[in-house]
Amino acid sequence: MQLYSYPDPSTWPALQQRAATAEAPQVAARVRAIFGQVREGGDAALLSLASELDKASMTRLLVSEAEFAAAASQVPADLQAAIRQARANIEAFHAAQREPELRVETMPGVACSRRAVPVQRVGLYVPGGSAPLFSTLLMLGVPARLAGCPQVVVCTPPQSDGTVSPVILFVAQLLGISTVVKAGGAQAIAALALGTVSVPAVDKIFGPGNRYVTAAKQLAAAEFGVAIDMPAGPSEVLVIADETANAAFVAADLLSQAEHGPDSQVVVLCNSAAMLDEIRAETTRQLATLPRRDVAALALENSRAILLPDAAAMLAFSNQYAPEHLILATDEADALAKEVTNAGSVFLGHLTPEAVGDYASGTNHTLPTSGYARQYSGVSLDSFIRKITFQRLSPVGLRALGPLVETMAEAEGLTAHARAVTLRLEALAGEKTTAAAVSNPYAGLIRPSVERMQAYSSARDEFEGMAPVMLDANENSLGSVGPADFSRYPDPHQRAIKVELARLKGVAPNQIFLGNGSDEAIDLLVRLTCTPGRDHIVICPPTYGMYEVAANLNDVGVTRIQLTADFQLPANAVETLAASTAKLVFLCSPNNPTGNLLAQEAVEAILRSFKGLVVVDEAYADFADAPSWTTRLAEFPRLVVLQTFSKAWGLAGLRLGVAYGSPALIAYFDKIKPPYNISAATQEHVLTALASAPSLDAMRAELLANRHQLAQQLPQVPGVAQVFPSDANFLLVRFTTDATAIYDQLRARGIVVRNRTTQPGCAGCLRLTVGTATENALLLQALKEIGAGC
């Protein structure tokens, strides 16, 4: 193995190059020629190529019934038992990957579903030659049978006497596969892609192989319309080892891949020079005892041992390399595994050799090689199925969805698309049930008194803008007391802000409500939907306290769904809410006081099943990487998203909150809001902030960096038991000692944090807002002093 010590990252791409890359043009030319031979000669060309390349003289390509019948008696009983157990493990793991048919009503009357159907004709390539890989047939045949593929064709290279390995035939019989073709290499792939008299053409080709097989699969996909599982070429393994590794184990793992073939590649990364020397020496010792040492030795010539400074560098190299197999030979395997982004399959710890994945653990060993793990996954049950979507619209659905489609189609200039909807809507126009009655997603949700009421109309609702003489709104025309001219009422519709905010957020101005802080929107939501003394809302503690305050002020009941220990929605939340008669559910994400995002899947399920309004409070969303739920408003008409200018914008003193929803829902907000709820001063300052919105990114980046640094340093402070993950601008921290006493001592030092010890699930916790670097340093120093004195 070639040794490299602390190579500069700029040289890593050269070290990550696979040996076969330089020969790619010659390989491609040879493969293309073989495809031409098979296209022209069919079976005869396959027999001729078997003689030329496999040194096998044959008169027929298909394995006969007699050959199948004789196979089992040639396979030792202990090997048969091992194969049966491996099959059971592989079947268990792949069967668990089945998904039920997906059915979703995306909006009332619009039913969408997705169903899995098997690929009809699949070809399985099983490498043979000097080492027939019957395990590959298990890995491909088991999921093919589980998926229900009607036609399964196996191609495998013949032995020199024209036969196929009896173990491969035994596995084929075990899986109920009767079509086995004696053909290997690029010619087998050509036969599966093109079809011959003996070899049926297939829809998708699976299986690993050498660089010729890989090139043939890529050609089949590019020019003959045949799908492939992935580009799977010569085998490879990368081992990350540290001083805790066992050199003998690592050497054995390296050689287990090297013995596959001379073009295999093995790489070992280590941060200990002594351990790396020991691994290399042990590899040399073990190589001498291998029956396939000549093959393994050739592979080792193109393999590398690399000394790197630390685990971070080893992970960075590995993620760039994207190995087929990655072994984490370290005591810290679980922690390192969380940072793996590119790998086919990962083997954790000292007792997990790559060989178990090759044969019998249950995972699939058909994996992307040559760096394709950056784009591809290994073979799974999904590889053998296709997922077809279906949709059906009822009259209710067409009336609700049709106008949206008409608008979008006309905007793209696709008139026939719009007409396909318009004709159907016109056909429904004569029905007794009106569109308004069947397509209103808020039917039964809005308080009857709100539906009946006449909205207050201010003077500025009747006249927009200014005139030379303004005598309509009973203002003081003599001017104002103070430096600015605030003598006139502000724009009650806040038009300019909504236009700029709509552009920034990718919504329409009529999807925006501006409130005196998000608290006004919360209060209006309760008043809009809940009749005092009768209705109730749902909250998920620990969460923002104003939801319950607004309910209590409006004489509205509160139902609580407690978050789990890791502050996620419990498993029964969706079912509970689906059966609930509540008018509102408030979901704070990122949550306050915990800082975490709620799982997207759970929120989606609630949006699809809950009959009331779903309010996602995103006051802290600017500090999270997840997309805003404002991007999903078109899907979910009962969704309301709350945001604020108080957090990331740094404009808490202006008290401006934002609610996003459908235009119809926002119209209800405007109906019941106070006429001039946003002051002129606030409107002017917010417009200035919106004009300089790009500076928000720099502020956000600085705060996130401070949050990361604070989260890294807090666990080192005496008395800190846990720092919870956060997607907000604060951290929830649990202490081993009395958190209230710590809170009091911090106050005595002039540092004010938030005591959350009385909130559900937050015993012993303080909430620490992320401050400036100086403020954070003062906080840490104070906590260290307090902890040291306990």
TrEMBL record:
NAD(+) binds at residues 125, 187, 210. The gene is hisC. Zn(2+) binds at residues 257, 260, 358, 417. Its EC number is 2.6.1.9, 1.1.1.23. This is Multifunctional fusion protein. It comes from Hymenobacter frigidus. InterPro entries: Ald_DH/histidinol_DH, Aminotrans_II_pyridoxalP_BS, Aminotransferase_I/II_large, HisP_aminotrans, Histidinol_DH_CS, Hstdl_DH, PyrdxlP-dep_Trfase, PyrdxlP-dep_Trfase_major. It holds the Pfam family Histidinol_dh. It catalyses: L-histidinol + 2 NAD(+) + H2O = L-histidine + 2 NADH + 3 H(+); L-histidinol phosphate + 2-oxoglutarate = 3-(imidazol-4-yl)-2-oxopropyl phosphate + L-glutamate. Binds 1 zinc ion per subunit. Homodimer.
